[in-house]
Design brief:
Its main location: membrane. The protein is α+β, with helices and mostly antiparallel strands and about 450 residues long. It folds into four domains: about 80 residues; about 80 residues, no CATH class; about 90 residues, Helix Hairpins, CATH 1.10.287; about 140 residues, 2-Layer Sandwich (Heat Shock Protein 90). Helices cover about 55% and strands about 15% of the residues. The protein has twelve helices and twelve strands. The strands form three sheets. A five-stranded antiparallel beta sheet has the order 1-5-4-3-2. A five-stranded mixed beta sheet has the order 7-9-10-12-11. Strands 6-8 form a two-stranded antiparallel ribbon. The protein is elongated and about 145 Å long.
């Protein structure tokens, strides 16, 4: 009675270890192979019994042993007895003949009339080597397959096989291999989908939709222990990156904010400078620094990351933005449908369109905002008739603080943050920003967003 608790404890430890092993991919693969062996053994044995009972096909080994045994009887028999023995042996099928040894010169190892399936079976599942017929297992005479055994130095006993047959032994072995192969493929396919493919697709989908903002874990921690470990590591990496970015953003915000006070004092002191030329120069530099701080703070704001997507009218938002620029005297026109409802972040996307329109009116005189739906995507083109951007710079202009000075010589241009903000907003919408040439001149800023219908 006292040994029961110890046995229960040992059983519990063993069960825990088995449970941990099964939760790993290595343990699951082992379990799949073990299950495959059991299923193949049960089904294969049943199928083999059915083949032996229901399908009467030639057994090459048995037939070779039969021919060899009769040949040994012929070796010790007289010529008259041989005729009697041959007649008795041919009582059922009449396929045995006595041939001179020179008959073997007609033997070949292949036949043009042999079924392709039989060739494959002989190559993959050759008969066992006991007893081997005279000339080998694959012996043909005049295109007909035969089994031969040597009676004496002058005589061969030859058995002619049916024109078309399927070896019973090959069928039995082939059925076992087929059952094992099919079972292994099915079980491993199910295992791969359940334990590998689905979790990896889930992680990949979460990674594509993820952002670096602080928040709950984005990768679901379920599945095998390896998948859980991977998801946990990715969640930890996301938290570390988010913390690092948030800390640096807070530091830059603090620096930008703290610079505003001394900058205000500089402006007040510059206004008291007596010489007008020096005063205007100082105020111009201070104003430029102030605009740099404002754009930097605007870039560091991550409102577009925290804003929640909602169903709204994209066409109405674009028309409103164009009307606001038109009310300020700019030639900005909207071209597109009157209504297009989809999921997006209204404030963030409005900011992106506004930045693109501001860039367009700085360097062009006429701006067109075009909206259309193509293949499940909303395409927004903001076109201007300005100088455009050289092709070699169209990727770099999306980087913060990069400007194409050779193409954009206006002194009122910003600090290279507008397109960077637009690129981040579009990326947060899982979209794409492309800069293209406009004919005959100008630039087309194309936004491609996934279009989700109700």
């Amino acid at each position: 009675m006292q040994s029961v608790p110890g046995g229960t404890a040992q059983g519990g430890v063993l069960g825990f270890r088995v449970s941990r092993l099964i939760s790993t991919i290595h343990g699951q693969i082992t379990a799949v192979i073990f299950a495959c062996l059991i299923i193949a053994f049960i089904i294969g044995s049943t199928l083999e019994s059915w083949v032996r009972e229901e399908y009467s096909a030639p057994d090459m080994e048995s037939m070779s042993a039969h021919v060899t045994a009769i040949a040994s009887v012929f070796a010790s028999a007289t010529p008259n007895d041989r005729d009697v023995i041959l007649a008795a042996a041919n009582h059922e099928d009449g396929r045995l003949t006595l041939q001179p040894l020179s008959y073997s010169e007609r033997f070949t190892t292949s036949s043009p009339d042999e079924p392709f399936l039989q060739v494959i079976l002989d190559r993959l599942l050759p008969p066992e080597n006991h007893p081997v017929p005279f000339g080998g297992w694959r012996t043909f005479a005049d295109g007909r397959r035969v089994l031969a055994a040597q009676v004496d130095h002058d005589t061969l006993l030859v058995m002619e096989l049916p024109e078309s047959f399927l070896r019973n032994d090959a069928l039995i072995f082939g059925s076992n291999y087929l059952v094992a192969t099919v079972t292994l493929l099915i079980l491993f396919s199910l295992f791969a989908v359940r334990a590998l493919t689905s979790p990896l697709r889930r992680i990949a989908s979460a990674a594509m939709k993820a952002d670096i903002s602080l928040g709950p874990a984005i990768f679901e921690e379920r599945g095998s222990s390896e998948i859980v470990t991977l998801a946990r590591a990715l969640n930890g990496m996301q938290r570390r990156i988010s913390t690092m970015v948030e800390s640096r953003t807070r530091m830059l915000r603090g620096i930008s904010h703290d610079l505003r006070t001394p900058l205000t004092r500089l402006r007040l002191r510059a206004e008291r400078v007596g010489e007008e030329e020096i005063r205007e120069g100082l105020l111009g530099d201070i104003e430029r620094i102030d605009r740099l701080l404002k754009e930097s703070l605007g870039y560091l704001r991550d409102n577009h990351q925290r804003e929640v997507s909602q169903r709204a009218d994209l066409a109405s938002m674009l028309q409103t933005t164009c009307d606001e620029f038109a009310d300020m005297g700019h030639d900005v026109q909207y071209d597109g449908p009157a209504r297009m409802v989809t999921n997006f972040k209204p404030l963030a996307l409005t900011r992106a369109i506004t930045n693109l329109c501001e860039n367009a009116i700085k360097f062009g005189t006429h701006v067109t905002v075009e909206l259309r739906a193509v293949d499940g995507q909303a395409i927004i083109d903001i076109s201007d008739d300005g100088p455009g951007i050289p092709e070699q710079y169209r990727t770099r202009v999306l980087e913060p603080f990069f400007k194409v000075d050779t193409a954009r010589q206006d002194t009122e241009t910003g600090f290279g943050l507008g397109l960077s903000i637009v690129a981040e907003i579009i990326q947060a919408h899982h979209g794409k920003l492309v800069l293209l040439d406009r004919q005959p001149n100008g630039l087309v800023a194309r936004i491609i967003l996934p279009l989700e219908h109700k």
